[in-house]
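The records we work with from here on pair a chain with its fold. The integers have meaning only within a learned vocabulary of local backbone shapes. A complete example follows; check for yourself that the lines match position by position.

:::
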Amino acid sequence: MTASKSITIHIVDDDEAFRDSLVWLLESHDYRVICHDHAEAFLAGFRPELSVGCLILDIRMPGMSGLELYEELQARGNRWPVIFITGHGDVPMAVQAVKRGAYDFLEKPFNQEALLLAVNSALEAAASLQQTTTLAQQCETRLQTLTTREREVLERVIEGKMNKVIADDLGISIKTVEAHRGKMMDKMGVRSIADLVQTVVAYRQQKGGA
């Protein structure tokens, strides 16, 4: 993934020397990096809506641990990919975190290539998620422009019902269905039923079945 100013990597680790080494490595590959020496400082300033990126968390830190920080971020609905840094004794904990949605973990000591591969993969996932989120927001905005009747037609169209069946369902003429269907398709910004179905299904999956 090509680094850009819109991409931010947050590092949360209480080991200053380790933070400095990660910053040097990542900035040498043109990534924007922000460091935090404890979880509370990170939470105070984290604004995920302003950029896209990933998090590198030490799994065990004084005060709020990396794992506790991750659980707090989950509770807040954060979906940035998280890479845990762990010592040998904390590997089982990191594995459990991955099972709960963390993106990856690296066991110390690790080589630079392993970290860069993990970061690049996490940023690819973040970019994909950002694109999906943007498309879902566009779909939601367009859905809100539909009239009640246009929404009723949409629901039946994505169920695969023909115009005659929709007309019978709603107690209106086929021509009226066609008129509502045309306006609905225009407002949704789609050219075919396949596009409509894909757009709405992807939106509902993003929203968890909303």
User: Anything to note?
Assistant: The beta strands are 7-12, 32-36, 52-58, 82-86, 104-107. The CA atoms of residues 170 and 185 lie 18 Å apart. The domain at 145-206 is CATH 1.10.10.10 (Arc Repressor Mutant, subunit A). The chain has two domains: 7-130, 145-206.
